[in-house]
């Protein structure tokens, strides 16, 4: 007995509907657990703040290949540099642009790995916090260290048990150590606070004040160190002509 085509089609439709309705039970759906966001850690992370970038000396240190690991620039630091580069103030604009240029040059040189890292989640209480606050939090989270020229930021990081390297302190520690009685051969460049004084500098920038040295301005002179004074900005040598 041959069934009419319309009846065959109707039966096929009913069978298909039945199978579809049973499929969820035949093949139970796997419940996927929501994946937690895994934050990538960076080893030996070196974070740079805005002051260190616009200061520029850190790029010379990196160029000597004395540092290893990864240099991290946070998004908020990068944005701060961009704001400086777009500033109406000529000095700020120049500093911001030079900072961005040095970062780009460092990245292209490939002497050290450079990465940009988001830091919005490190804002205080989920709100947009200060750039320095975020830098301290993200550095601490990655067990890294950051480089700065900001004395107050360095001290604040110390309170938070975060390693901060101040470029000014590093530069002072690398200056030539001179002691009273040591002879030096320097060029007197200009007059001191006292009209009779002459002022010269060592190769590392250390100031030397020479008693009665104004008469030798523009000339090389042999002097002997008489005393050394330590100030907040570095050492000042006082000397007498030999």
Helicity, as a percent range:
25-40%
**Contiguous uncertain segments of 5+ residues:** 35-39
Query: What spatial form do the alpha-carbon principal axes imply?
Result: elongated
Number of beta-strand segments = 11
Number of domains: 2
What Rg is obtained from the alpha carbons, in whole angstroms?
A: 33 Å
CATH T-level fold name of the largest domain: Rossmann fold
Task: Give the strand order of the largest sheet, numbering strands 1, 2, ... along the chain.
Answer: 6-10-11-9-8-7
Order of helices and strands: HEHHEHHEHEHEHEEEEEE
CATH architecture descriptor name of the largest domain: 3-Layer(aba) Sandwich
How would you classify the helix and strand content by structural class? alpha/beta
Write down the overall mean pLDDT. 84
Q: What's the CATH class of the largest domain, please?
A: Alpha Beta
Per CATH, the superfamily of the largest domain is 5'-nuclease
% residues in beta strands? 15-25%
Cα end-to-end separation: 131 Å
Largest beta-sheet details: 6 strands, mixed
Count of separate DSSP helical elements: 8
Can you tell me about this structure?
The structure is a single chain. The chain is an alpha/beta fold and 242 residues long. It has 2 domains: 45-173, 5'-nuclease (Rossmann fold, 3-Layer(aba) Sandwich); 183-241, OB fold (Dihydrolipoamide Acetyltransferase, E2P) (Beta Barrel). It is 38% helix and 24% strand. A 6-stranded mixed β-sheet has the order 6-10-11-9-8-7, with no helix packed on it. A 5-stranded parallel β-sheet has the order 3-2-1-4-5. Helix 4 crosses helix 5 (90-109). The radius of gyration is 33 Å and the shape is elongated. 23% of the residues are buried. Residues 35-39 have low confidence and may be disordered.
């Amino acid at each position: 007995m041959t069934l009419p085509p319309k009846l065959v089609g109707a039966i096929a439709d009913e069978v298909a509907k039945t199978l579809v309705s049973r499929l969820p039970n035949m093949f139970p759906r796997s419940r996927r657990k929501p994946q937690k966001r895994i934050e990538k850690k960076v080893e030996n992370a070196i974070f740079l703040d805005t002051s260190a970038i616009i200061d520029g000396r850190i790029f010379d240190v990196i160029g000597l290949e004395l540092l290893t690991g990864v240099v991290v620039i946070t998004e908020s630091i990068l944005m701060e540099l961009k704001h400086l580069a777009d500033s109406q103030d000529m000095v700020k604009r120049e500093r911001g642009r030079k900072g961005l240029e040095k970062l780009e040059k460092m990245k292209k040189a490939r002497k050290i790995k450079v990465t940009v890292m988001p830091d919005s989640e490190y804002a205080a209480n989920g709100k947009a916090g200060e750039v320095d606050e975020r830098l301290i939090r993200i550095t601490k989270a990655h067990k890294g260290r950051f480089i700065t020229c900001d004395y107050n930021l360095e001290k604040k990081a110390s309170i938070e048990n975060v390693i901060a390297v101040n470029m000014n302190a590093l530069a002072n520690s690398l200056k030539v150590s001179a002691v009273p009685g040591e002879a030096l051969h320097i060029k007197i460049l200009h007059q001191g606070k006292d009209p009779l004084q002459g002022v010269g500098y060592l190769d590392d920038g250390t100031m030397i004040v020479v008693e009665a040295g104004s008469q030798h301005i523009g000339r090389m002179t042999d002097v002997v160190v008489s005393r050394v004074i330590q100030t907040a900005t570095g050492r000042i040598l006082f000397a007498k002509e030999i």
